[in-house]
Amino acid sequence: MSLLNRELDYFLTICETRNLARAAEALDVSQPALTRSLQRLEARFAAKLFVRAPRGVELTPIGAALRARVETARMTLDDAETEVAQLSAGKVGKVRIGAGPIWARLVSRSLFPRFIVERPAAQVQFHIAFNVELFKLVEGGKLDFAVCGLLDTPPPNIVFHELLGTGLVVVVRNDHPLTAIRKPTLRDLAEFRAAAPGTAMRVRKIAEERFATLGIRTQPYAIETNSWEAILDAVATTDLYSMAPRHAALWRGWAPRLVAIDIPELDIKQRIGVVSRADAYLSPLAARAIELIKGSLAESANDEPVRPTRAKPVRATAA
Description:
With about 325 residues, the protein is an alpha/beta fold. Helix content is about 40%, strand content about 20%. The strands form 3 sheets. Strands 3, 4, 5, 6, 9, 10 and 11 form a 7-stranded mixed β-sheet that branches. It has a two-stranded antiparallel sheet with strand order 1-2. A two-stranded parallel ribbon has the order 7-8. The chain is elongated. Mean pLDDT is about 85; it is low at about 305-319.
């Protein structure tokens, strides 16, 4: 139970389930008791909050406005409860961190084992997801912060602190046919299939737009996954390619099996940073985690990708 009063807690549960019977079951109260609670709330606001729907109830415009306000209030109260508990009990508590698939390994290496040694009583929840999902989790108060790329249109109540900017390179195995081409182009790249993150990735969308603008037809994706390790393993052992941030710290573990190739038409820039809610309480634990991640990214920002060894130029053929 949150610090909200009972009527508002019940109201949010009805919003989530859209069904009075399911809400009553989730709250472990009788349906008549839940109905009376809703009636008291509607009487207080002198407005109808729900209307009947084929499979339950739907919010009225007034109900939707109230829900947005109440959810914000609940997150603020949860933050206050966390802050007071940590200050009064002297407990280190828990930090909830998100990271994009590409950055997850570097983030975890930035934190462990140093963070656990410094904060032996800390509990860390680490969630890996694409940027769109991470922004929603941060906005909804499910994550304290996330390390990821900036969305084209971030939510208005989200704060983005940039940690580094980086370009992208095409990554292939070290004896890939593309390494024998002196100045490979997008048309050369289009002859091969890719291992890539899901469609929600901004970088993938931009790359597809570049191909389309030049009228280049690409091969179907061979592999789609949110596992960065799986992508690099596949690229290191096949004629597939993928795109990666320029500095090699993110894929050093696969060297010397992988090399980077610059393709001018794919001059895509990324802004990587810490995403947090503008009005959220940031605990000392979360602040220290951000500090460690920031320091690690700064150290790796100047890393250069491994360059391909040029062989005698030959025209590549499709795998």
